[in-house]
Amino acid sequence: MRLWNRRSSIRARLGRLLVFAALVAGLCYLGLDLAGRTLLERYLTSEDFVQRQDQRYLDDLRSYIQAESVTAWDADKLTQWVYRQNVVSIQVVRDGMVTYDSFYPEADFTAYPSAGQYYEWGNYHDVAFADGPATVWLYGYYYYQYDVRLLVISLAGAFLVFLGIVMAGIQGTITYIRQLSHEIGVLEGGTLDVPITIRGQDELADLARGLDAMRDSFRRQGERERELTQANQRMVTEMSHDLRTPLTAILLYVELLRRNGGEAEKREEYLDRLEGKVEQMRSLADHLFRYARSSEETQAGHTETVSMEAGVGDALSELAVCLTQRGFRVEADLPWSGRQVVVDCEGAARVLDNLTSNLLKYADPCKPVTIALLDQEDFMGVRIANALRASFDGAESSGVGLASASRVMEQMGGRLDRTETDDGFQVTLFFKAV
After folding, report:
1. C-alpha R_g of the chain
2. Could you tell me if 161 and 285 lie in one domain?
3. What is the mean pLDDT of each run of 10 residues along the chain (434 residues)?
4. Do residues 389 and 320 share a domain?
5. CB 383 within 8 A of CB 427
6. What is the pTM of this model?
7. Which member of 54, 147, 256, 305 has the lowest number of beta carbons within 10 Å of its beta carbon?
């Protein structure tokens, strides 16, 4: 029962939700990034902020020089300080010559002297080193550290917006799934009068319709079983009452025969009456037998005249799909024709279910399972053949499945033939042709 379409399916709705959430999250990211950069530009580029930051790092450098006795030529210690700060670059100049440059921390300025050059970006400060004063050029990348933080905040905000929209969008579906789970639990408890909630036109709604149809089917089946039980109880009660009356009469006539058995006229009269009562009991027994037979025929199922494909085509397709999914190779030769057969579709499906179960248990998955149609004068048949697996032991098969299948075929006017060899097994289902 497929009533949903592609536009209303869960996949389509989820896809639209994800696209919408991604668009909103992207706009949120752009907005946060733009607002954050505007604030950073206004704050970080101000002269007061840069001077305060320069002075803070310069004071830290002076403290480091004093604590570690750093000279103007001590490149290793100066590099350690620069790496620790992470956001500043320095150049040390003495007497117009460069003694250290953080852009070239491994350069040997004693062997290869280099004249200092003036950078317009950055500030120059006089700093006292352990071996005397020198000029330090310091430039801070203060905007960089805040730019990374802004990126992280913008991405986190956009992700939270995306997650919030997706969670809000699927909340209804999750609630509906929980409701279906609760209602299925009610069904498991045996309560079949509570209907399954059907909401929407998607796969879940289709599933709910199937569950509700199954619930209604079970409920009607239970009602029929209760009616049959009540009818049987009523019939047994009535039959017991009807049988008790002639039995009482029979006992009475037997007693009279014992008392007056010597009189020929009386004896014949009593025997005639006894015969009538026995005939009455036989009639009641025949009635009971007919009732049992009619109940059995009712349980046998409803047969109808349809084409072979309409009667068993879907069941054979399910058999082939099930075997293929379990690793079997199915070779089917099914030249369907318009010839009509008498079939109980539900019973035929049960028969093929039994055969599927046997194939999964006992067939060799390395050998193909063949399915072929047979067309005879009075019957049309389906032949299913397979090879038995090497580890098959005939004792492990109870034969209950094939016995049940054979009985169902007989009830619909057909028959089941089986042929077994040393390494193979073949079952043919014959349906009465019209």
Report:
1. 47
2. no
3. 66 89 94 86 73 88 91 91 88 88 84 72 84 89 78 92 92 88 85 83 84 87 85 67 61 72 68 70 64 49 83 83 80 86 82 78 86 88 87 58 78 88 84 88
4. yes
5. yes
6. 0.42
7. 305
